[in-house]
Amino acid sequence: MPVLTLRALEDAIRHSWARDTCDPTDVEVWSTTNPARGQCPVTALVVHDLLGGQLLEAEVQQADGTPQGFHYWNRLAAVEVDLTREQFDAGEVVGEPHLIDRLPEFPWLAHEQYLVFRDRVFALLDLAVPEGAGG
Questions:
Q1: Average pLDDT in the 130-135 region?
Q2: CB–CB of 114/42 below 8 Å?
Q3: Contacts of 45 (CB under 8 A, 6+ apart)
Q4: Distances (CA, A) of 116 to 63, 90, 101, 120, 135
Q5: Considering Cα of 98, then 29, then 84, then 119, what sign does the dihedral take?
C-alpha cells in the first residue's frame, strides 16, 4: 500500500468537492468559484478517517456579528489542518475552536454528503473503504 501524504490527500479532497458534497445549509451559495464553501464537515471527517487526530468546531459570524454557522477542521498532533479556510467571505469571522467528539450513533447533518465525498476521495486515492465504515 502506498504511503498517504497530506499533499495527495489534499489534492483528492479538492478534486472531490462538488454541490452534491456540500453541507445542506450552504448548497444554495456553493459554486465552482468557491468550491470549498460548505465542504468543511465532509472534509474534516475524511481527514479524521484517514489520519486520525482531533476534530475542531468553531462558530462563524457575519461581519455584523450575526451567526453564519459553524466551521470544522482537524488537529493532527500539534498542527491544525484546515483545508477549507478559504471558503469564507471577507468579514466572516471564525471564532475560537473547541474539540468535538465524533459520535457514530448521531450522524451529522451532512451525513449523506459525507458518504458520497468519502467514497470519491477514497477512490481517487485508490483506497478501499473499511468494512462497516458507515460514518
A1: 65
A2: yes
A3: 55, 72, 102, 108, 114, 118, 135
A4: 32, 30, 22, 6, 11
A5: positive
HSE (CB half, 13 Å, CA atoms) of 37? 17
44 closest CA partner among 85, 3, 91: 85
Instruction: Please give the angle made by the CA atoms of 101, 83 and 72, to the nearest 5 degrees.
Output: 30
Helix (H) or strand (E) holding 93: strand 93-94
Q: What is the pLDDT of residues 38-63, one digit of tens each?
A: 999 999 999 999 999 999 999 999 99
* pLDDT (tens digit per residue) in 116-128: 999 999 999 999 8
Domain boundaries, the chain: 6-124
What Cα–Cα distance (Å) separates residue 64 from each residue in 22, 42, 90, 115? 25, 27, 12, 35
The pTM for the full model equals 0.91
